[in-house]
Automatic annotation (TrEMBL), chains A, B:
<feature type="binding site">
    <location>
        <position position="233"/>
    </location>
    <ligand>
        <name>substrate</name>
    </ligand>
</feature>
<dbReference type="InterPro" id="IPR016161">
    <property type="entry name" value="Ald_DH/histidinol_DH"/>
</dbReference>
<feature type="binding site">
    <location>
        <position position="356"/>
    </location>
    <ligand>
        <name>substrate</name>
    </ligand>
</feature>
<keyword id="KW-0028">Amino-acid biosynthesis</keyword>
<keyword id="KW-0862">Zinc</keyword>
<feature type="binding site">
    <location>
        <position position="356"/>
    </location>
    <ligand>
        <name>Zn(2+)</name>
    </ligand>
</feature>
<feature type="binding site">
    <location>
        <position position="255"/>
    </location>
    <ligand>
        <name>Zn(2+)</name>
    </ligand>
</feature>
<feature type="binding site">
    <location>
        <position position="255"/>
    </location>
    <ligand>
        <name>substrate</name>
    </ligand>
</feature>
<comment type="function">
    <text>Catalyzes the sequential NAD-dependent oxidations of L-histidinol to L-histidinaldehyde and then to L-histidine.</text>
</comment>
<comment type="similarity">
    <text>Belongs to the histidinol dehydrogenase family.</text>
</comment>
<feature type="binding site">
    <location>
        <position position="410"/>
    </location>
    <ligand>
        <name>substrate</name>
    </ligand>
</feature>
<dbReference type="InterPro" id="IPR012131">
    <property type="entry name" value="Hstdl_DH"/>
</dbReference>
<dbReference type="Pfam" id="PF00815">
    <property type="entry name" value="Histidinol_dh"/>
</dbReference>
<feature type="binding site">
    <location>
        <position position="124"/>
    </location>
    <ligand>
        <name>NAD(+)</name>
    </ligand>
</feature>
<feature type="binding site">
    <location>
        <position position="323"/>
    </location>
    <ligand>
        <name>substrate</name>
    </ligand>
</feature>
<keyword id="KW-0520">NAD</keyword>
<feature type="active site" description="Proton acceptor">
    <location>
        <position position="323"/>
    </location>
</feature>
Amino acid sequence: MRKIINPSQEQWAELVKRPAKNLEELEAGILETFKQVRERGDAALLELAKKYDGVQLEQLLVTQEEITAAEASLTVELKEAILQAYSNIQVFHTHQAEPMHQIETMPGVTCWRKSVAIEKVGLYIPGGTAPLFSTLLMLGVPARIAGCRELVLCTPPSKDGTVHPAILYTASLLGVTRVVKAGGAQAIAAMAYGTQSVPAVYKIFGPGNQYVTVAKQLVSKAGVAIDLPAGPSEVLVIADESANPAFVAADLLSQAEHGPDSQVVLLTNSEVFLDRVEAELEAQLAVLPREDFASKALGNSLGLVFDSIAEMLDFSNLYAPEHLILSILNFEEALDSIVNAGSVFLGNYSPESAGDYASGTNHTLPTNGYARAYSGVSLDSFVKKITFQHITPEGLQNIGGTIETMAAAEGLEAHKNAVSIRLKEVNRV
Amino acid sequence: MRKIINPSQEQWAELVKRPAKNLEELEAGILETFKQVRERGDAALLELAKKYDGVQLEQLLVTQEEITAAEASLTVELKEAILQAYSNIQVFHTHQAEPMHQIETMPGVTCWRKSVAIEKVGLYIPGGTAPLFSTLLMLGVPARIAGCRELVLCTPPSKDGTVHPAILYTASLLGVTRVVKAGGAQAIAAMAYGTQSVPAVYKIFGPGNQYVTVAKQLVSKAGVAIDLPAGPSEVLVIADESANPAFVAADLLSQAEHGPDSQVVLLTNSEVFLDRVEAELEAQLAVLPREDFASKALGNSLGLVFDSIAEMLDFSNLYAPEHLILSILNFEEALDSIVNAGSVFLGNYSPESAGDYASGTNHTLPTNGYARAYSGVSLDSFVKKITFQHITPEGLQNIGGTIETMAAAEGLEAHKNAVSIRLKEVNRV
């Protein structure tokens, strides 16, 4: 952990920078993958599964038998945990639905907006070291609440052609329309352009490696919406002496274990506290199965000592962390000062893991400073908000002159005429 | 107008296609402009204003004197129209604010989300044939309601170095922090990266030509958020025999006058009606000042005859129009069938112009079929929704086991430990 006492304002801009990654050299290869998938569809997906996932699949779509077997293979404890998390995520996201208000902005001029589900969405769940069924919940539950008609899941198969049973069980709970054994850029291409087995979708969600990241950027340029720009996961903890160094160390490690490029930042007003956290980090790290990832991430981590909570909040706002933990005595007083953050965890008993899995908030959040302008995934991410208006003849008499004057001032006479021609009719009657 | 009677389902996919534009060849030149602005800041902006706008500016920022003069130069009628539109837009967008609900997803586990303004936003208003002060209202009013701290406006100067007085008057009403005389890709670069006069912003809004479009794509790849992907404006009208052919023609023309690439589509269940609209189009077109634009756009327009309203709605959903006008007798019955559209205008007295200027709804809307996944600009576009959670020791006892089980199943032991270490402490007391 890089330790700095009272960094100067000049240093701040440097300290909040994330490591930049240039992925442009991947684009050509990924565009070639896109071409394969667009031209040959399922055949290309099967070929690429052999090449990249090392498995000769018999078919791309997961069968009902596989799902039934997956369900039978999970422990009751895990199934209950998944159901509990599902329930909490559902409760929290259901409250995000916007009620419809009809608003009469002027007499006879009524406007409203209505949330309508995006019809077809695609979810990508990576394979690799951790089977992220929690991410599937975080994306699938709001998709279900929104009412998305088609829910496609792509996830890479293991070498034996299977998908992790917890992912299949969760997919089945969510009523995912199709589970496709496809990973990487080819999965993104399949969902963007469609193949024989994979319907083309309008928006693609989910995390992934750098190939998936670039593939999502490329399809988004081509008009398919995506959830969020990607970046390594991160946590910033603000702790005062009321915090528990062991808890803080555990939180930092839970971020660090994601991968060597995870961003971990601790702000505190006590150098003694910082030292105690460092001692705890060392002790807890030693027994972690993913020690290798975590210790690499800690190597790039920051421990900063400031004079005041206010300064720490300023720094945090400039950093705009994905996860912000406030382990300070008077966290209520800090709430109004939080301007840029993805999700905020308050007090000593609200670990980031709670939001990662089960408290109800979403864990798909803006990284890399994007929290300055982006929100995390929510029910909003799965709907369009369509506006409507109805104007009566009297309403048009009320508002018509305003429109005519403005349209004329912008030099758009046909816009003006669409009102004038109607007013003439209304006034004639 | 290209006329087709009962197009087959096979034809639909072709008919809903928008003309594709490949702007990639512009990227190199725009990246060079970015480099100039990043390296030389204001000096580059002044130089590029000379090169592209044909004016040697004395300074980039609009002065208070210019604003005062602008206000004095406008007619009372126009100022009142702008104020009326401002008021209606404000009323409608104020209702989009989300109330904060604290939700206890389990006993002791409380979650909520809060809308927080994006601190710094940039608005781009193009120059050219129409001074779009209406767009400035559509972007500035929700920015103000959200509480954005810094509101920067870039707009290209005319050859005499001035900005249209209606734009300056509107900017002043909105309390825009800075009005910068800069246009094109250089304006987007200035707002994304900052110069001596232009603060770097977190999100950039507004329409523009192809250089602006590509520049916005490029900065969005670099992490600056943008409002919407761009495309030519479009209207789709569904009309039955209860509609007025003159009104429908006027609506089609108000779209067509935007530019030669505007998309204009009419669906009707009566060929006779279609012919009457075409006759009206010819008559009204002849007297339009922007006849040239409009007649080019009409050249590419579609007039389709279907058997039923249901089929027309299906086609419209596949097309996903930016603006949808329902000039049909029983429009209420159609409302639930509308799945993909930006903004919808109901009945014979709700012209698109109303929403373009003054009814209260936003006119910055998804074009090019993006309405399948994107919403128009709203108050949401100017805030981040940050989630918060507070868990009590008892709450952690309730939810802890669920988190531990899920984290272990994902192989993330440090995530599990962040809970276990706290539970040990809670259970010890």
